[in-house]
Structures are given as C-alpha cells and as structure tokens.
Amino acid sequence: REHYSDRLIITSGLRCEKQNRRDGGILRSRHLIGRAADCYIPSVADKTLCQYFKKQPEVRYTYTGFGAVHVDVY
C-alpha cells in the first residue's frame, strides 16, 4: 500500500477448512493458518504487484493469473 500509494484489497485471507474447500483451496493451504492472502491494488497490474512481492524477504511464494495476486509469507 505504501509503495504504490493506493489501497490494497484483500479478496481472501484466513479461511476455515469449509471455506477453503468452497474456494477450491488445496488441502494444506497456508490460508488455513493465516499465512496467505489473495489481493490486488486497483492502480497496479497484477503481474507488477507479483514481481514486487517476489522481491520482499518475508514472501515465500507468489503467483497471479486469476484476477488477483496470491502471496504466502513465512
């Protein structure tokens, strides 16, 4: 949010197992333990945000291609 001076919108954060199944999440999704989120910044292309996340030391894994950016943190 600070880097791009725009709001960060989280479309999915911490999920219970039932919601994770509904959302098509994997069995051991890091959403289940609060270590993943799907998000976007309206003024920033998803690919650009994904590249920015890849450079952050606390980010374990990130990808896009579904209308948002998934990010896993340590």
Labels describing this entry:
74 residues; alpha+beta
Characterization of this structure:
- This protein is α+β, with helices and mostly antiparallel strands and 74 residues long.
- The chain is 20% helix and 27% strand.
- It contains two helices and four strands; from the N terminus they run E-H-E-H-E-E.
- The chain has helices spanning 17-22, 46-54, and strands at residues 9-12, 36-40, 59-64, 69-73.
- A four-stranded antiparallel β-sheet has the order 1-2-4-3, with helices on one face.
- The chain is globular, with a radius of gyration of 12 Å.
- The two termini are 19 Å apart.
Radius of gyration: 12 Å
Low-confidence stretches: none
Query: Would you report the number of β strands?
Result: 4
Order of helices and strands: EHEHEE
Percentage of residues in strands:
25-35%
Specify the structural class: alpha+beta
As a percent range, the share of helical residues equals: 10-25%
Please sum up the structure shown:
The protein is an alpha+beta fold. The protein is built from 2 helices and 4 strands.
List the helices and strands and how they pair.
Elements: E1 9-12, H1 17-22, E2 36-40, H2 46-54, E3 59-64, E4 69-73
Antiparallel strand pairs: 1-2, 2-4, 3-4
